[in-house]
Batch of 3 targets.
Target 1
Amino acid sequence: MEMSVVLFILITTLSLTVHIGLQLLDKQRLNLFIQQLEDDLLAVQQQSIAESHYHRIYFSKDAYAVYQGTKKLYEREIPSSTSIRFLTLTNPIHYNESGTIQKPGTMKISNHGKEHTLVFPFGSSRFYVKP
């Protein structure tokens, strides 16, 4: 009987620890993805200005790719538990030679009920993230 109680407590503690650990891992993955996306968007905007070329970022279900004109510069994976919805923003995101987004708007990034909104305002100002 005492062994059953000890085993029950041990199994319960372990299962709670694993569950909390997985939640923290998912949250960290989402934060890292959003940070990488922010860095890429800012870099693309700055490259558009510095190089006087238009750039675009195209999103698919499982990745996004950065292009300079028709040349693909790089591609990044979107975590499988993360989804991206374009609300008023269009896909792909275009920056012209002056670093201005061509069609401003918003998009949502979701992961297990957590949502972040990326807002791309008119003009050449920087986008921002609303948690």
Note: The radius of gyration is 20 Å.
Target 2
Amino acid sequence: MAISGAALLEAAVTQALLSRLRESKTGNRELFRGNAPLSSFSSITQMAFALNVFGKEYRHDIDGVRHIRNAFAHSPKELRFATKAISDVCDTFYALRVAPKFNEAPTTARDKFSFTVRTVGMFLILASAELMTPLKSDLP
């Protein structure tokens, strides 16, 4: 869940960033491959934030998801969402403020993580499809 959820969110951030870049014959994908400047989730997030694709609260939640992904991927010991360090990060997600608008009330760290990935990802996908104005402000 942590790794696949982060991968989905990374794809949404990438798409939102691509939608703001000048069009090229290759679709700018070369910027995201191998050792290119935007080849990591961190650098993609930094660039999208610098280009005002989203605000501080989105950045906080995206970085939190990335940190959790990295912890699960690189920890020598078994982690769970109930692990204090992981659940503490999940408790800080700004996206949770909109949960009542979706008739959701995530209580476990895993549910908070999942809700945040789905919510932030949805807003990024909508923005990249130009169905919404750019996410210059923070979460509603």
Note: The CA atoms of residues 63 and 86 lie 13 Å apart.
Target 3
Amino acid sequence: MGFECNYYSRVWRVGDHKERGDYAVIGLLPHEMFQKTCHLMFDLHQSNSVDHLVSSFTRKLFHHHQQNYSPLQARVQEQFTAVPLQQQLTVIDKIKDFANSLLQDSANPRHRAIQICICFVIERRINISKSTVEGLETVRSEGCLVEIECVICFEKFENGEEITRLPCYHLFHGDCISKWLQRSITCPLCRYGLPVN
């Protein structure tokens, strides 16, 4: 079992898009999204304004910058401090390009500073290994089990058919539950969560 992470970022000038909250956790396992939005003033007349902006955003996004986090903030920040360097560099390039485009925009010199936002999202998925699925208990459908149907495909179990039993004791066709566990790590009947290492 492992984690697959995808990273998304968006930079914009305040007023151009609807702003979002500073911290958010969206969804439940096996799919979670952690979102963090930062706001900074971009001084258009400072000589090293782009470098200063990049440094400030990087600190706010990827490093601990306050003493007392709420439980939600701590959970989100834990994900952000673990973002790989290559992904951080991609965001830094995006911030630099956006800041330089603002400096070159002829409409901006009349402004002393512009407020900029960056929204960074970490999408995390759990992938259940093939060996975990293959290691699930199997039983033969006999007697009263023949009258039960698989709740995934709604077909009854055949007499003597090998079926898969989850730790919560619910029964499914092997192929049905194998496909189900590619997109969820919980039992489709009772939401029992398979053990996550």
Note: The chain has two domains: 2-127, 130-180.
